[in-house]
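Researcher: Sequence of Fe-S protein follows. Predict its structure.
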Amino acid sequence: MEALRLVLLYVHLIGFALLLGGAVAQYVSGRLRINAAMLWGSVIQLLTGLGLSAPLRDGDEPAPAKLVTKLVLALLIFVMVFFSRKRAQVARGHFLAIIGLTLVTAAVAVFWR
Ligand code: HEM
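Model: Prediction complete. Tokens:
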């Protein structure tokens, strides 16, 4: 079970890298569009996050309130990435909100103990 949890955590961190890295790279390039890395990253975060929420540890599970908070934030990011009106040209506020929500979700992951 511990091996499965570590594999899920590893893929979860790769998903985080794709989502945040894809968005920041796109932002600094000056063309505000939703790229494939962001699409994949948001899906990977939801799937691996749900997997990680299974009781895979012997005790010491994360608080349910933390998981629900992350789920709500990740669903918001998923909707904003997949159902943005035009993926090829996104409003600056919408794009910055995706980056901001991703940073907030990572902060919840790290600081909520
Ligand atoms: C964009 C969305 C997400 C981001 C940026 C994110 C970020 C992270 C990061 C950086 C870690 C590593 C923290 C550590 O091990 O100290 C982590 C772990 C974890 N994440 Fe996520 N996550 C996201 C979505 C989700 C979702 C939707 C769930 C489940 C509902 C989830 C559940 C977990 C769990 C169970 C862990 C294991 C460690 C712990 O919470 O203490 N994550 N996440």
